[in-house]
Amino acid sequence: MERMYEYWLACLKGIGSERKKQLRERAGSAKALYYIEETEKQVGILVNDSEKQAIGTGRKNWDLKREYEKLEKAGIRMVIKGEKEYPVRMRKLAGMPYALYVKGNLPKEDGMTAAIVGARKCTAYGEVMTLKIAERLVQCGIQIVSGMARGIDGAGHRGALNAGGSTYAVLGCGADICYPREHRGLYEDILKRGGILSELPPGAPPLPQHFPARNRLISALADVVLVMEAREKSGSLITADMALEQGRDVYALPGPINSSLSRGCNQLIRQGAGIITGAEDLPLDLGILQKNSSSGIKKKTEETKIMLETTENMVYSNLDLFAKNQEELLRLTHLAPQELSRALVSLELKGYIEERSKNYYVRREK
Amino acid sequence: MGFYKVVSASMRGIQAELIQVEADVSNGLPMFHMVGYLSSEVKEAAERVRTAIRNAGYTLPAKKVVVNLSPGNVRKRGTAFDLPISIAVLSALDMVPTKRFRNILLIGELGLDGKVRPVDGVLSMVTEAKKRGICACILPKANIKEGALVREMHILGAESLEEICDWAKGNAKLAEENGRANDSIRHVQEKPDIDYSDIQGQEGVKRATLVAVAGHHNLLYIGPPGSGKTMMAKRIPTILPELSWEQSIEVTKIYSAVGMLRGDEPLMTKRPFREVHHTVTRTALVGGGRFPAPGEVTLAHEGVLFLDELAEFQRGVLEGLRQPLEERCVHLVRQQGACWFPADFMLVAAMNPCPCGNYPDLERCICTPTQIQGYLGRISQPFLDRMDICVEAPKVKYEALAGEERTITSEEMRLMVKKARDRQKERFAGSKILTNAQMGREELRTWCHLGRAAECLMRQAYDALQLTARSYHKILKVARTIADLEDADEIEEGHIKEAVAYRMIDKKYWGS
Question: Which residue in A has a C-alpha nearest to residue B458's C-alpha?
Fold first, then answer.
């Protein structure tokens, strides 16, 4: 029953997380804080007037039993600052939440953890590279933390799951809410092999102001932060800044220097961030992988030489991971429009290329 | 002195029905009374008729005049009753000989000076009269060319009431026009001032347009602002096939009923192209009103209905298009009775991919993924399902603009369309349909048989691209058209591939 009072305290508004921890230690328990008037009679003055008022309103608008039942029904655990389960990586950092709400598991403390962040609106290049790198990291025993957003985040989780690893998502809403909705499948899959975390109580809606705050948790939970694709002003760069403040290593995936979509990443590299030139880079740097085992990459590129018809071959050779539309391809190949669209559909059905959006095509990396 | 009856006609929607106009003169309090479920413009005819009769040189005696328009349960609308009423009254008063008005259709509005003015819907009325065994009409002179479109009908044109009375007495002649004997249309080949060769580049979009027009398929352009979607659509009339005589008559009837016929050219020889602004109401688009009037879909019958900025249309308005798209006609049920309008049009729509218009160019697009999805979400899936061909019109690159490369012209495209349509006409001879887009399940089975290789490819595409049954049928129809364009009897692999490339975007993956 003590847990009911703990939950009330965790959700109490008007008192900061450090102060909550301090008060709870002084009063002895959350229950003692709930009955603050009685407690103060015994141990003397604990809280100032505004805090007393906050506790008063907090009690009035809170049905202890019902609220706690809701939490239990959602299958969400509460981990409070100072408890044994509270992630070690977060303990020493300032500005960490009083309580974490967890569905599934918390990241393992003994394993290496990498955070993967990047733009929601990403190119095929960013997405494919993220998938590949996440897969490789997981194969090296590294767990992946990200934010389950569209684009890079989703690809990071998906890559980790594809390789059979564990992955954790930190949400900007209650851990019982799947946002964005189209990631419902991903949400379920993450739960099976990892966990969903949030500092917000169940039922909290995904408000815009929640997201920059959750970014600090993503970097806090990780040992290294990988920025896969970021514009000049982007949430991913906020995460990178937080990571540096928290003393984490930052890596960035370079992009074309004329693309505004990768400008943030390229800037990070210029400022001294680690550079990702292949899936093996990070495991090598972290000492998980030895140098000699990297010969596998070259073999793969040779395998990608495929037998295709001449027109198809010509179309394929004009495609890469940056989407090209039909008109550009027409100009590059000098084909008639009907010939081009036939070759494109042919390639698509054979699985060599992918239509990213109507009439925009990219190569599919195998 | 006593009673006389003449025949006139009234419009209901775009259909005409014959109305008996009866006049009775008797002793009693002098009055002019009209009955027969009349709308206000018909009631006002009383004043016009009395004044026109006086100004034509006849004096109405102080008698009780009752005019009845029968059948009495049909709402009478329009101004075409002025002339028949005045003739019925004059005849009932024995002021003109009645012999010549027997079995003759009278239509016309009267001015106060007795002049006969043109009315709407003449073609439908005369056709209806012909069907009912009437073989002569007196029409306003301005309408006689339109009336003469009906075969074997004796058309007389009058300029004033006085003239008709003189003709009845045998003192004068009326302008005569006989219904034409043959069904040929003189297609005037005037060179339009727009042409597909005006557009540099966008060859893929032109090809998609060509295929759509060749098979009468609905077409959706998606692209950023300024990429030439509207330009592309506006040039569709330059490649549309010619109207046949029957189609031409049908379109003319519609335009005549709504009063949009050009006076100098009684027959609509060109396929209509109706561009609709996105502020249009549902009634204006599909037709309706208390007395059902045809909407834009009917005005676009046998032609093109173009909706620019599709995402800006109100959802309810677009949903109203679903039934006409499926059934190729509009059924309106109102208190006054049910109404039917033809609406066999080719739908062409254009829209931006997202609110800022630049998706999927991520360098330029400033919308959030939610906004992008929401933009397409404004159009319901069932509506998108009714588009057969979807093509992206990208931003034109400078190289294409400045290029000297020769592009396909409207004339070349028109000839290709004509050839493909001729093949279709031949194929569907004897059945109700004319084009590939109209094929039903039965026709698909007969005419879209796939060879082994094509069948195998179709199966592969169905699985790999997660097609639905509806899109499968659409791809077959479009592939049939592509095969027709290439003069091929069998649908081959290449045709299927191209048709697959034109499939509708998948909403699920849009913006993610």
Answer: A349
